[in-house]
Specification:
Keywords: Membrane, Transmembrane, Transmembrane helix
Order of helices and strands: HH
Helix content: 40-55%
Strand content: under 5%
Radius of gyration: 26 Å
Transmembrane segments: 38-55
Number of strands: 0
Low-confidence stretches: none
Largest sheet: none
C-alpha cells in the first residue's frame, strides 16, 4: 500500500519553468552587478581606505 501511495504521488510531472539565463537584455547596470567579484574587491578596498583614514586621525592637528 505504501508503494502505491508513492507511485501515485509521483504520477504527475512538475511544471517547472527555470530561467538560468544570466545575460538578460534590458536590465539596469548590465544585470546582477552585485554578484560581480570585482565590485566586492573595489568595495572592500574603499572600506579599508576609509577605516585607515579615520584611524589615522586626519593627519596634522595643532
Amino acid at each position: 500500500m505504501f508503494a502505491s501511495v508513492i507511485l501515485f504521488a509521483q504520477e504527475k510531472a512538475p511544471d517547472l519553468k527555470v530561467d538560468v539565463d544570466v545575460d538578460k537584455p534590458g536590465e539596469a547596470m548590465g544585470g546582477d552587478w552585485m554578484s560581480n567579484p570585482l565590485v566586492w574587491v573595489i568595495g572592500a578596498l574603499v572600506l579599508i581606505l576609509i577605516i585607515a583614514l579615520v584611524a589615522r586621525g586626519g593627519g596634522s592637528r595643532d
